[in-house]
Amino acid sequence: SAVISQKPSRDICQRGTSLTIQCQVDSQVTMMFWYRQQPGQSLTLIATANQGSEATYESGFVIDKFPISRPNLTFSTLTVSNMSPEDSSIYLCSGGTGGLHTFGSGTRLTVV
Amino acid sequence: GQQLNQSPQSMFIQEGEDVSMNCTSSSIFNTWLWYKQDPGEGPVLLIALYKAGELTSNGRLTAQFGITRKDSFLNISASIPSDVGIYFCAGQLYAGGTSYGKLTFGQGTILTVHP
C-alpha cells in the first residue's frame, strides 16, 4: 500500500492567518482525500482532491475556507484560510486506489 | 447523509480478555473497513470486507460483513497492551478499479487494556 508523508506535523498559528498542509504519496493513487479530526473524535471528510480539477467539498466545507490543490497523482495541498480558534484540529490526508485508503500521520493545528 | 453507529464508545479490559465492537448503518455499504489509530498517527487499516456475510481474520482480529450489508463487527482475541488505541469502522459504497467511494467513519471505540 502507498506511504503518505504529511507536513507540517504540527503548527501553532495566529488567528486570521492561513496554513498550507502538504501531502505526498510515494506512488500514484487514483484519488486523495482530506479529513478533519478533533482529538479523540471521528474523522470528518472535508473534500475529495481531484487531479487536474476542482476539489469536491462535503456539506459544511467551502473552497474559500479550505482551498485544495492536486497538481498530479502523488501530491495535494490543503490550505486552512483566515484561521480562527475553531479551526484548531487534526487534519489528515489519505490516498487510495482500488478502494483501500492509506492515511498520513496528520497535522495538529492550534490557532491562538 | 449516511450515519454509522459504533459501539461501545470505550472499553476497559484486562490483558488476555477478548474484545468485541460493532457498527450499524442506516443504509447499505459495498465495503466495510476496520482501522486502528494510535496517538499522533493516522488510522491504519486492519481488515477490509467486500462481501455480505464475509468473515475475515488477521491474526487475533476477526471481522464480519453483516448479511444485510448494514452492519459489521470486529473481535480481538486474547488482548495485549499494544492493542490500546481507537478503533474505527468505515463504510464505503464503491470498491474496485478506479471507481471507488469516500469513506464514512463510525464514532470510534477507545480501547484500554490493563496489564
* Number of beta strands of chain A: 11
CA(first)-CA(last) distance of chain B: 41 Å
Beta-strand segment tally of chain B: 11
Rounded to the nearest angstrom, the distance between the terminal CA atoms of chain A is 37 Å
What is the N-to-C order of secondary-structure elements of chain A (H for helix, E for strand)?
EEEEEEEEEEE
As a percent range, the share of strand residues of chain A is over 45%
Give me the secondary-structure category of chain B: mainly beta
Radius of gyration based on Cα positions of chain B = 14 Å
- Overall geometry of chain A comes to globular
What does the main sheet of chain A amount to? 7 strands, mixed
Instruction: Spell the H/E element sequence of chain B.
Output: EEEEEEEEEEE
In terms of DSSP E residues, the strand content of chain B is over 45%
Number of helices of chain A: 0
What does this structure look like?
Chain A is mainly beta. Chain A is built from no helices and 11 strands. The mean pLDDT of chain A is 94. By secondary structure, chain B is mostly beta strands. In chain B, strands 2, 4, 5, 9, 10 and 11 form a 6-stranded mixed beta sheet that branches. In chain B, strands 1-3-8-7-6 form a 5-stranded antiparallel beta sheet, with no helix packed on it. The radius of gyration of chain B is 14 Å and the shape is globular.
Provide key terms for this protein:
heterodimer, A: 112 residues, mainly beta, seven-stranded mixed beta sheet, B: 115 residues, six-stranded mixed beta sheet, five-stranded antiparallel beta sheet, globular
